[in-house]
Specification:
Blueprint (H helix, E strand, L loop, with lengths): L17 H7 L1 H4 L11 H21 L6 E4 L2 H15 L6 E5 L4 H12 L3 E5 L9 H7 L4 E5 L13 H11 L2 E5 L11 H4 L3 E5 L10 E5 L25 H16 L1 H20 L8 E5 L9 E7 L3 H8 L10 H6 L4 H5 L4 H5 L1 E5 L6 H18 L3
Helix pairs in contact: 1-9, 3-9, 4-5, 10-15, 11-15
The protein binds pyridoxal-5'-phosphate.
The site of pyridoxal-5'-phosphate has 13 residues, from helix 4.
Length: 386
């Protein structure tokens, strides 16, 4: 894609890093063998590449290789975690708990289970998007089998207190699943130290390829497989493995961790420059900027702002030509519905529609910020009232 306008939608997806593309290259047409065929040399070489990638991912997350289950992405990892635990723990109970601001890849599997007869509690969040721990504690019941709360929100960047959530669940013997698709590669993750039972991640959120992710499971955790077949991935996820995608995921994760801290510091500064710049714009009468999410507990590269008092559809149609950003999650944009995340923060449908999500990439510059600010300034008077 010719990059003619600043791309500030890195929460939706990131480009594949050239070093990742290079690492993947041999596994498409040259070393193409099936890693399940360890009986011949090409198969064994493919298996070694997958083993190496699994070790890299495990090292990056401080877990053992046998805890890593490769999947097609975070959607599949979430489905495996949520349905797998609920099926496995059927004799113990049929109650699960999640949060209103979760991604559809968590909410929809939970609602599916609700249709099958499970009881689902969807907890509200505080105005900054954080889950109140006492609300979670109060929602847990003797028949609760699973809690699913994400690490970082895809629309507003808010970080949840995963360690405290894990501790609450652990005390009660409840499985805790954490969708870390947005957090992985951007903020430190310590599933073992925190006591997370299941953690999902996705390659394309940290400059890896699309179509690959992983579910990291606590050792010894019993989980009912959701894809039955040849028994790959320890029987948890049947289906031929893709060495190029898996090698790419591992390479991308290793690269992301190399500069995670310094990148986070740099992007946080740029993000605050963007927020200050937005506040310095000339706003039409009756228009107000509202920051969504929690400034102190958030992904460093994510800023979500409601431009209250303007027509969201017109604002976005004006901005579209000047800057690539999102009005919410990619999923909610496609459906055209106001973002359920912003609604859960208390924004009205019109306010949710008039919201801008900026997702800064690792190469973001001050010039990108200036271009984005100029685009917003130009669009504001033309957007009109809702
Ligand atoms: C928080 C979160 N969970 C899950 C997903 C789905 O990930 P994937 O595209 O790998 O299926 C996304 C992607 O937008 C996400 O942001």
């Amino acid at each position: 894609m010719p990059q003619t306008i600043p791309y500030l939608d890195h929460n939706a997806t990131t480009p594949c890093d050239p070093q990742v593309v290079a690492a993947m290259a041999p596994y498409w047409s040259q070393q193409f063998a099936n890693p399940s065929q360890r009986g011949h040399r090409p198969g064994l070489a493919a298996a070694v590449a997958v083993d190496h990638a699994r070790q890299t991912v495990a090292d990056a997350l401080g877990v053992t290789p046998s805890q890593v289950i490769f999947t097609s992405g975070a959607t599949e990892a979430n489905n495996l975690a949520i349905k797998g635990i609920c099926e496995q723990r059927l004799p113990q109970g049929r109650h699960l708990v999640t949060v209103a601001t979760e991604h559809a890849a968590v909410l929809e599997p939970c609602r599916y289970l609700e249709r099958l007869g499970f009881t689902l509690t969807v907890l509200p969040v505080q105005p900054d998007g954080r889950l109140a721990l006492d609300a979670l504690a109060a929602a847990l019941r003797p028949d609760t089998v699973l809690v699913s709360v994400m690490a970082a929100n895809n629309e507003i960047g808010t970080l949840q207190d995963t360690a405290a959530i894990a501790a609450l669940c652990r005390q009660r013997g409840i499985a805790y699943h954490c969708d870390a698709a947005q957090a992985c590669g951007h903020v430190p993750l310590d599933p073992t130290g925190w006591g997370v039972d299941l953690l999902s991640l996705s390659g394309h959120k940290f400059y890896g390829p699309k179509g690959v992710g992983a579910l990291v499971a606590r050792p010894g955790l019993a989980l009912a497989p959701q894809l039955h077949g040849g028994g790959q991935e320890g029987g948890y996820r049947s289906g031929s493995l893709s060495p190029p995608l898996i090698v790419g995921l591992a390479k991308a994760l290793a690269l992301a961790l190399e500069d995670q801290q310094s990148r986070g510091q740099r992007l946080r500064v740029l993000r605050e420059k963007l927020w200050q710049g937005l506040n310095g714009l000339k706003l039409p009468a009756g228009v107000e900027l509202l920051r969504n999410g929690c400034p102190t507990h958030s992904l460093p590269h994510t800023l979500n702002v409601t431009v209250a008092g303007v027509d969201g559809a017109r604002l976005h149609s004006r901005l579209r030509r000047r800057v690539a950003l999102s009005s919410g999650s990619s999923c909610s944009s496609a459906s055209g519905k106001p973002s359920h995340v912003l609604r859960a923060l208390g924004r009205s449908p019109a306010e949710a529609a008039a919201s801008l999500r900026f997702g800064l990439g690792r190469g973001a510059t001050a010039a990108d910020i200036d271009q984005a600010l100029a685009a917003v300034q130009e669009a504001l008077p033309l957007a009109g009232v809702p």
